[in-house]
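notes to self, project folder thing:

trying the whole complex as one job this time. last attempt i did each chain seperately and stitching them together was a nightmare. two parts in total, labels are on each line so i dont mix them up again. if this works i'll redo the older ones the same way
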Amino acid sequence: MSVTISIQDLVKKYGDATVIPELSVEIKKGEFFTLLGPSGCGKTTLLRMIAGFNSIEGGTIKFNDKTINNVEPGKRNIGMVFQNYAIFPHLSVTGNIAFGLQNRKLAKSEIASKVEDILKVVQIEQYKDRMPKNLSGGQQQRVALARAIVIRPDVLLMDEPLSNLDAKLRIDMRNAIKALQRDVGITTVYVTHDQEEAMAVSDRIAVMKSGVIQHLGTPQEIYQRPANLFVATFIGRTNVLEAALTNNQGTRTLRFGESGYQEPVERVNIPEEDAAKPLLAVKVSVRPEEFVISEDGTGIRAKIVHSVFLGQMTHYFVSLESGQSVEITQESTSARPLEPNQTIFLKVKTDKINIYDARGELNYTGSDRP
Amino acid sequence: MIQARKRFDVWTNLSLLIFIFYILFLALPLFTMLFKSFYNGTTGELSLAYFTKFFSKPYYLNALWNSMKVTVSVTLLAALIATPLAYIMSTVKIKGSSAIQILILISSMSAPFIGAYSWILLLGRSGVITRFMKDTLGIAMPDIYGFTGILVVLTLQMVPLIFMYVSGALKNVDQSLMEAAESMGYKGLAKMRKVLLPLITPTLLAGGLLVFMRALADFGTPMLIGEGYKTVPVLIFTEFISEVGGDDGFAAAISVIVVLFATAIFLLQKFVANRKSYTMSALNPIEAKKKKGLGNIAAHIVIYAYTLLALLPQLYVIYTSFLKTSGRIFVKGYSLDSYRQAFDNIGDVIQNTFMLALSAIVIIILLAVLIAYVTVRRRNALTNTLDIFTMFPYIVPGSILGIALLITFNDKPLVLSGTAVIMVVAFVIRRLPYTIRSSAAILHQIHGGIEEAAISLGASQMKTFFKITLPMMLAGVVSGAILSWVTIITELSTSIILYTGKTRTMTVAIYTEVVRGNYGVAAALSAILTGITVISLLVFLRMTGKKEFTL
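result (full assembly):
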């Protein structure tokens, strides 16, 4: 049934332009694997190479031990869900779902019972005789999903399947997709540009940019320990502060701007050539919730610009003494929110922030879990 | 201030005026025709005599049978040829495809009877190809006259129409539908049959209807190349203009039968098409891709060969227009004599054509703008009826409309027969739909809020229309008007019924010169007509930036 997808040194070129340079990744059997990135990062291109709709200019793709580079899409035993669903408008719901089965020399009764089963799984039994034009977006989505998994594919490929739905339906559907995938256990490759959606459904995420995987990890790893500044800013919201990392006989301290605010840091891994330097310029990624408003008048001096009350959390937009604007979030309290122009002092949660080299390419912060 | 009926404004009055126009020049003539088909001129009684006459004589029934044979064969054959051509053009990158699309468009817009006459010159008894085959190769060519000839000429004429329809539909098919089918193991013919063909079926039905109606109504082709093979339009014409005292009533009865038959087909098509309709809009349309090897060569050969075949009649006519003539026959050498003759002897037909067509176009633009506006923006019972009226020209063949107008306006109180007015009226009624369609289409894209914005800023309804709506509609109006214009100047079947010495048009002149065997002059006039058509179409393409249109 399910397979492991091994991708080795994969290259995609359009003419002279290289879209994907030598990409390697292994997608585990039964895993829900997501390709996440901004538009043009090569995620859909990669998905379509796995599906067989794009040619491969170098490297190999294997399903288990079988190289499938030159196998045509219909022979790869894949199920694919397209961005616009690609529901056949001339066929009913049943007709659409049975379409792939009809090509597989099955008895009519067998096709009917398989269709019947999958209709139940995706909960659209009552619409089975409808034509696609009489279905809502969410229902069409379910038909597309049913059509893709009814053929019992080795791999399920989904290309931004939720991007055409409204916000609320998107959340319902992504839960449905996740639950379904868990039940049937098909190796799934999912493409999206929505990081929240990626976090919600994935076992592992590959964050891509310019055809290169920037970070491969679980949703938690990617959010908490982004491999580089691109990933840190792409996943969730964050503030990037300039800081200095000093080294005093092995004791490392992080110092922010002119304020003199500093914090000792542990667990930093600095490459050998820089390890001995007494002072390193670094970039620090501090997520809004990783700021603490200090009670004792120490920390980075800042001024409230304005606040937004969002129920559970209150967001403050503040201006640091360096002039930089940052966003911080605090759990809402029964007290009144802080007023604009009020001066506050900010500290950071040293165990949560991420420290990068000056170019933002290397995360110095060590893993929480050894 | 109390407004009794808010909707009763200037637009309602205009709708009423147009409505009266349609009642007078479409409904009344058709009713008169219906009445005449039951009315016996000598006894003054109403009877079914004409209908019994038609259905009891094999001679007449045969013409009906011939018409059906021609129409059905042409429709099927045209669809069968055009669909693969459109598919090849949409999926394979053909060198010079833009030029080819324009050439195919041009070939579709020429008068079909010119094609017929050219094929006679090429494949007729003493045609160039026939003679070449016989004298040089010793091969006897099959006879081009009769059913075969009509089939060949009309099919060649109709293929571009379906080609353009299907090409348009293929643009709306999303590539991912094809990929979805592929991912489920369908390829090649199975993919076509199970996915692509059903998706373009509604379009094939629409294009098929258009071709069916045109083939059914076509008069020039069977007249020229049919010889003994009589179809209904030919029958109507000969019954009506018979030299031994034509019989209006009988011609009217045949016309009624044809209109009923056409209406039945029209309704049947609508019924089937409605059940099969779905809207498609492609996120990733199918793209023409560079192919390699034998397939690529084959695709190029097929497309080029077809384009050449489609243009061959036009090109050959233009070629012969430069041949030297002696009396009525072509002789060796080239000259502009045919053109000189064309201008000298019958120069006024060119002037006539322009005067009549221009008058018609002015009225068409005026009416189309108003009709498009009231049918899109002011939907009510009156405008809905107007909408239906504008569909009639699709069903009523040109020669029948001509006869209906003639028998209606032959007598007091309103005598129009023989005047330029009746010609202009016929042109307007028949070719108005093209301009209405494209004006309405563009109006659908203009948000109604923009007019409300103007009114809220204090502009009157008229000022809003002329300053805001009309300028925005203009591109659609003009492109539709060019289509109306081209179809007016290439029109034969109505003009041949309505013309008199003073209102002879170019197509009528070409037709009569061909019948007289005066091929040189006919060729020169055809070449001029083709020239005007091509220029008009190039202007159209320039304006719309498109390479195709739907009729």
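what i see at first glance: Chain B has two domains: 10-38+322-551, 48-313.
need to look closer tmrw
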